[in-house]
TrEMBL record:
GO molecular function, one term: dioxygenase activity
InterPro entries: Cbr1-like_FAD-bd_dom, FAD-bd_FR_type, FNR_nucleotide-bd, MRET, OxRdtase_FAD/NAD-bd, Riboflavin_synthase-like_b-brl
Name of the protein in its database record: Benzoate 1,2-dioxygenase electron transfer component
Record key words, sorted: 2Fe-2S, Dioxygenase, Iron, Iron-sulfur, Metal-binding, Oxidoreductase
Gene name, Swiss-Prot/TrEMBL: benC
Organism from which the protein derives: Occultella aeris
Presence of the UniProt keyword Kinase in the record: no
Domain FAD-binding FR-type: 10-111
Domain of life: Bacteria
Cofactor entry: FAD
A Pfam family hit: FAD_binding_6
Coiled-coil residues: none
Length: 246
């Protein structure tokens, strides 16, 4: 990477908030315009920094939800209990405000430009956000790669990006772990080995597997995939938080 491009990624930039919309009862989607944005790969994230009037700063990392082909940058921020950054971004931030961010960051958990075989995505809760970028890229490029998504959430209301989970060559399976509405046609339990065996691509097909979600979810899924015979080198994981799960 050229030094100028690297400096641009690592320097803090100002983004204009175009709009803030409710994604779920606890999550908001931020649409941003970044004036000197160099582009990103599907699966990357940015750091966001807030500065208080007294000079106190706090920063957090957020996955990019929009595909590289979009003219804007979307983040989906889930409000955490007592979260000083997420609380401000989901409850106080308004269209016309400014945000400081830097990025894009990360080269491991990204959709590879050379991908040729099938891809399996497994998400827990807000871990689906980087997959929205990947699925958006798949649609935008009219990719012929087969993609399967297994997405676990606590309730139907907690599902993020429901209008972005489908497309040609994309197969999505949803499972709810707590509240299940009448007439629900998806699965209704936590992800386990049996579910992985029945609703993900078989290890014999050597899929590239991405797993994202809370730490306990990712550890359970990764262990299940290995027990089914998936190649460890074909499994990419990204986790957040210490406990809990969808």
């Amino acid at each position: 990477m050229a030094p100028t491009a690297l400096r641009r990624r690592l320097n803090w930039q100002v983004a204009d908030v175009l709009r803030v919309t409710a994604e779920t009862p606890t999550a908001s989607r931020l649409r941003l315009a970044v004036h000197d944005w160099a582009g990103h790969d599907a699966g990357q994230h940015v750091d966001v920094r807030l500065t208080a009037p007294d000079g106190y700063t706090a920063q957090r990392s957020y996955s990019i939800a929009s595909p590289p082909q979009a003219p804007h940058l979307d983040l989906v921020v889930e409000r955490l209990e007592d979260g000083e950054v997420s609380g401000y971004m989901t409850e106080e931030l308004r269209s016309g405000d400014l945000l400081e961010l830097r990025g894009p960051i990360g080269g491991y958990f990204v959709w590879p430009a050379t991908a040729a075989g099938p891809v399996q995505l497994i998400a827990g809760g807000s871990g689906v956000v980087p997959f929205l970028s990947m699925l958006g890229q798949h649609r935008a490029t009219r990719s012929e790669i087969q993609v399967r998504l297994l997405y676990s959430a606590r309730s139907e209301a907690d599902l993020i990006g429901t209008g972005e989970l489908a497309g040609p060559g994309i197969s999505t399976t949803l499972t709810l772990t707590r509240a299940v509405p009448p007439g629900w046609e998806g699965l209704r339990r936590r992800v386990d080995v049996t579910m992985l065996a029945e609703h993900t691509l078989a290890p014999e097909r050597s899929p590239l597997v991405f797993v994202c979600g809370p730490t306990s979810f990712v550890e359970t899924v990764a262990a299940g995939l290995l027990s089914l015979g998936h190649d460890q080198s074909r499994i990419k994981t990204e986790r957040f938080g210490a406990t809990g799960g969808p």
